[in-house]
Design goal:
It is a single chain. Helices cover 9% and strands 30% of the residues. By secondary structure, it is mainly beta. The chain starts with a strand and ends in a 5-residue tail after the last strand. The relative contact order is 0.15.
Length: 373
Amino acid sequence: MILVSSFLVSANNVITGDRVDNLLFSMIGSVDEKDKSNSDIIRNTDVPSRTVAPPLFVSNTEVPKAEVTSDPLFTQEPNVSTRPDYIATNGPTEGTNTDSISTPLITPVPTGFINDHTYYDPSICVTIETHTESYVSGSRTLSLTYYVVDLQLSNANQLGALLAGGGYDGGKEYTSVMASRVNAILAINGDYYDWQGKKGIMIRNGVLYRNTPTDRPLLIIDKDGNFSVVKENTVNANDLVSQGVLHTFAFGPALVLDGALAPVDLTGEIKDYNTYNEPRMAIGQVGELHYKIICVDGRQPGYSDYGVSIKKLSEICLAQGCKIAYNLDGGSSATLYFNGRIYNSPSGYSGYGTSAGDEREISDIIYFTSGIN
């Protein structure tokens, strides 16, 4: 049996109720190998959208309607007439035995890394789901494992980008090394800009590093943290900087646009839509400062045999509620870092001297941090 703990998130002045499309919640407890082999998708139960006060933890799979108390940061005894603060202000209620009055039970809201797949503080919520599937190919039954990350932020500046070596042309480093340098809660590989022949529009953290546009699809993350995808040769890089654009990534293709599967576009780094199954990495936006990351493992027989096609990746992003989603560098670069360690199992590649489970050195990462110092 899997125990589910629910996050009902909306922090005062931080993650507000109108930003929460779906309440975050995490699964507690391990999944043994028998569960994994049953081809079940390990995922959270559906929770209806609603606006509630900061995190409330529920210790079963049934999530009751939340009652917002006078101080939503704490859970308190329901009978307020017996509380010392009430009596001090209003006097005891008739029939109340003040000798037996005790301090009400107050449960602080947990913050930080709640378990191995959940992080919460008043500025950011992160949950990771592990999905496993099996499918038949010819006479073989193959496996697929991928991870779905749900992130909600309070400020767009919590979504950062870092270049290996501290700057442009700084060489390559491991994702974990770069992520730890900026105290990232979670990080993924970027678009491997150094591999792309010095072409494309490249803006990171508001700085223009490269302005050699092509006809590839370009992911733009603006000053408010909103995503858009355009052809590189249809925009002016200097104009993007003047508009406050935070980051651009040039890999592609677009996977979801305007809440629907994106048209097939093979002008990016990927030239196949529905033939090759590979490890993949995608990032998408669900709503205001609400994002999804899809990390697909592959090339590891018995665990995740091949990966997915671009078509399948697009369908996963759409099913996860993305209104817009974009394909980043994949293959042996696909790396998910969380809580100080590599969370997925990168495929490895003998040509780079790595094997399954090993990180590959790359040129850049996307990372997420707390907004609280």
